Amino acid sequence: MSSSGSRFGCPVQRVWNRIVGRYLAARLGEAAGYLTIAGERLPLYGPALALFDRNAVVPLPGHRAVYADPDLSAVVARVLSEEELTLSDLKARVLKKAYLPQGKRPLVLFPRDVSTSPPESDDLFPERTRLTLAFTLPRGSYATLVLNVLVVGRFC
Q1: Domain limits of the chain?
Q2: 10, 46, 57, 68: which could form a disulfide with 104 (CB 3.0–4.6 Å)?
Q3: CA 100 from chain center: how many Å?
Q4: Which of 104, 95, 109 lies closest to 141 in space, CA to CA?
């Protein structure tokens, strides 16, 4: 890899999303639906996600990342190959002006403390009703993903 990082055109988080999406597809089969965010087609699974440990995490790709599950390791290798990268390429000192986050992210997202208000008249659209949805997400998670799933799919 060149020191300019010219082949490092994809953020680590996007590569991680692709890795996890393909890993879930390998384990669970075809997704019930898909959600496209930032050009990435992410699989949506309903009750099948109950098969996974709620505490399961997947390391962000990086030169120190370790993938103990052989199936996950194979998916990581395939995705990185498509990006013309290896884990050892993902060293911040090899890339100029690059930020490479490290750590692990939850394999699946489970909102907690979910609650709704009773339906009531909507102030903005009087012919409609509204309700308030509240939930807590783990640090680093995006509420927009949860809301998109509620709007797009039948996973609520």
Answers
A1: 1-108, 109-156
A2: 57
A3: 17
A4: 109
Count CA atoms closer than 13 A to 102's CA, side-chain side.
9
Q: What is the pTM of this model?
A: 0.70
Q: Which two tokens stand for residue 10?
A: 């994809």
Question: What one-character DSSP code corresponds to residue 153?
Answer: S
What is the C-alpha separation between 61 and 89, in angstroms, rounded?
10
Please write the tens of the pLDDT for every residue from 87-130. Answer: 887 775 555 555 545 678 888 878 889 999 999 999 999 999 99
Residues in the chain: 156
DSSP assignment of 48-64? GGGGS-TT-EEEPSSTT
Helices (H), the chain: 12-28, 70-82, 143-152
Distance CA 142, CA 147 (A): 9
Q: For residue 2, what are the contacts with CB-CB under 8 A and spacing of at least 6?
A: none
CA dihedral 14, 18, 8, 62 (to 10 degrees): 90
